[in-house]
Amino acid sequence: TKHRFVVEFGAEDGREGQARYLRVRHGFRGVIWDNRFEANAQIGLEKRLVDLEDLEGTFSSASVPSVFDLLSLDINGGEDLVWQSLSPERFRPRVVCAEHVSGNTTIATLQTLAASRGYTLVYINPINAIFVSDHALQTLRAIKKVEFLNAGNKEALCA
């Protein structure tokens, strides 16, 4: 992709996780945030509490591009609120990975939000749900001939 940029909330100490993997193995840039662990500049970890009232300001100050590759949400509840607080006109991740086992965040609430923003559910495991923007899905289908089995079908994906 053009930007190769990832944003991860809830990365704990940053030693593992999606953002760390993409940075180390695939040369992505990005930000790794957690409110419980001290900053580690060597791996790009910042100690930061999610501020829903100024999340877009936080993204802007971190130089997050308007279209970026992955938004990873693992904050133990409220993942849907974080995603909802981002204006889709200002910040549009190609892929969103959100934890669905904590707090009030459920697959159903995430899927409703995703559909309202033009995303399709493509994968579920016991902890995370992964959504891909419909635009990215169309591109994958047209150019790469990639198809996700049961995309958008929560019942089949959960079976």
Key structural traits:
single chain, 159 residues, alpha/beta, seven-stranded mixed beta sheet, 6 helices, 31% helix, 26% strand
Percentage of residues in DSSP E strands:
25-35%
**Strand tally:** 7
Mean pLDDT across residues = 87
**Percent range of helical residues:** 25-40%
**Alpha carbon gyration radius:** 15 Å
Number of helical segments? 6
SSE order, one letter for each helix or strand: EHEEHEHEHEEHH
- The rounded distance between the terminal residues' Cα atoms is 32 Å
List the strand order in the largest sheet.
3-2-1-4-5-7-6
Largest sheet: 7 strands, mixed
Give the uncertain stretches in residue-range form. none
Q: Estimate the global geometry from the Cα principal axes.
A: globular
Protein structure class: alpha/beta
Q: How does this structure look, described?
A:
With 159 residues, this protein is of the alpha/beta class. The protein has helices at 18-26, 55-61, 79-85, 107-117, 134-144, 154-158; strands at residues 5-9, 29-34, 45-47, 67-73, 92-99, 119-124, 128-133. A seven-stranded mixed sheet has the order 3-2-1-4-5-7-6, with helices on both faces. The longest helix has 11 residues, at 107-117. It is globular, with a radius of gyration of 15 Å. It starts with a strand and ends with a helix.
